[in-house]
Structure formats: C-alpha cells, structure tokens
Amino acid sequence: IFTTTEPIKPEQSSAPSSLGTGY
Questions:
Q1: In angstroms, rounded to a whole number, what is the distance separating the alpha carbons of residues 10 and 23?
Q2: With contact defined as beta carbons under 8 Å apart, do 22 and 11 qualify?
Q3: CA gap 23, 14 in Å, rounded
Q4: Is 1 in contact with 23 (CB distance < 8 Å)?
Q5: Model pTM greater than 0.85?
Q6: Within a 10 A sphere around the Cβ of 8, how many other Cβ atoms?
Q7: Beta carbons of 4 and 21 less than 8 angstroms apart
Q8: Nearest to 10 by CA among 21, 1, 18
Q9: Any residues with CB less than 8 A from the CB of 17 and at least 6 apart, and which?
Q10: What does the pLDDT look like over 1-23, one tens digit per residue?
C-alpha cells in the first residue's frame, strides 16, 4: 500500500503508478 500523505483513490490516480495506483 503506497500511502503518501493524502488518501489515494483509483478515481483520482493521475499520479504515476509508483505512488498513485497503490491501493
């Protein structure tokens, strides 16, 4: 699970898969 600082949702995963699509 890649949690940065804010809750990563698959809806708003416009970040790279390194940190965005880790749910």
A1: 7
A2: no
A3: 13
A4: yes
A5: no
A6: 18
A7: no
A8: 21
A9: none
A10: 555 666 666 555 555 555 555 54
What token pair was written down for 17?
A: 């898969």
What residue has token string 């749910």? 23
- Tokens matching residue 22: 């880790």
Q: Tell me how many degrees the CA angle 10-1-20 measures, rounded to the nearest 5.
A: 40
Place of tokens 């995963």: 13
Residue 16 tokens, joined: 């790279």
What tokens does 15 get?
A: 């970040």
